[in-house]
Write a structure and sequence with these properties.
This protein is an alpha+beta fold and about 290 residues long. Helices cover about 30% and strands about 30% of the residues. It has 8 helices and 15 strands. The strands form 2 sheets. Strands 7, 8, 9, 10, 11, 12, 13, 14 and 15 form a 9-stranded mixed sheet that branches. The protein has a 6-stranded antiparallel sheet with strand order 2-1-6-5-3-4, with helices on both faces. β13 and β14 form a beta hairpin. The protein is globular, with a radius of gyration of 19 Å. The two termini are about 25 Å apart. The relative contact order is 0.14. Bound molecules: N-(5'-phosphopyridoxyl)-D-alanine (PDD). N-(5'-phosphopyridoxyl)-D-alanine binds next to α6 and β13.
Length: about 290
Amino acid sequence: MSEIVYLNGEFMPLENARVSVLDRGFIFGDGVYEVIPVYSRHPFRLTEHLARLRRSLEAIRLEAPLADAEWIRLVHQIIERNAPEDQAVYLQVTRGVARRDHAFPKGVAPTVFMMSGPLSTPSRELVEKGASAVTATDFRWLRCDVKVTSLLANCLMRQRSVDSGADEVVMFRDGYLTEASSSNVFAVKEGVLLAPPKNHLVLPGITYDVVLELAAASKVPVEVREIGEDEVRGADELWLTSSSKEVLAVTTLDGRPVGDGKPGPVFKVIHGAFQEFKRRIMRQAA
Ligand code: PDD
């Protein structure tokens, strides 16, 4: 079965999907997106992903092309039309096709695109061993809370980790932890889970919220506050969270071990709770 995508009202094989070179997504990166994980054909936290999409559209002053009920129907349809049981639905809205001009075009329909590939979560080996990360100064813009398709800075960051053989980049702005190139970052010190606040400098991750809920339910003490670079470097544990990484321990930072260099005890509690939470949702959906 070939991959089926959705473009502007129609489902079609991936290889048939075409957009104009004048699409503002192509010319300016003028668009927003979502990545929704799907477990056993059940979209995870869909309401929350759609609420974030609505906020992203508002932030870039683009009128929502579809109502939530229509997005929900389309997301279910694309899942149905693709083979994998676990998928990552990618959804993108751009400001449409117009002659190149920075100012917004008038009366132009947005481009709506969705695709869904297999969801690739970390292997058991990676979960048990932990990931590696390097650090960098966060040089992105000041609206990192908006999930925009213009991701050049994030791509440059991610490539930096590739160049040094690491899995991710942990970023600091003005001496404080922000996030990673495509994930949120948490630290643990003396049993307390530390989370950077959700502000304009980080993407409000859907997984971030799930982790805070699971920490509360598991009676893990939490502090949501700015975390200094020294605290990150001296942390007992560091984690990455995202829709595809779920919750993943970072066990080396800039080549040095984090804590004792193994995924820590608080990670194990929350990772276990996350897996159980997923199983519960799948049972409810079945
Ligand atoms: N990335 N921070 C950044 C910069 C991200 O790109 C992402 C997600 C996250 C985590 O958000 P969530 O928990 O909602 O996935 C944090 C997605 C998966 C991507 O761009 O592929």
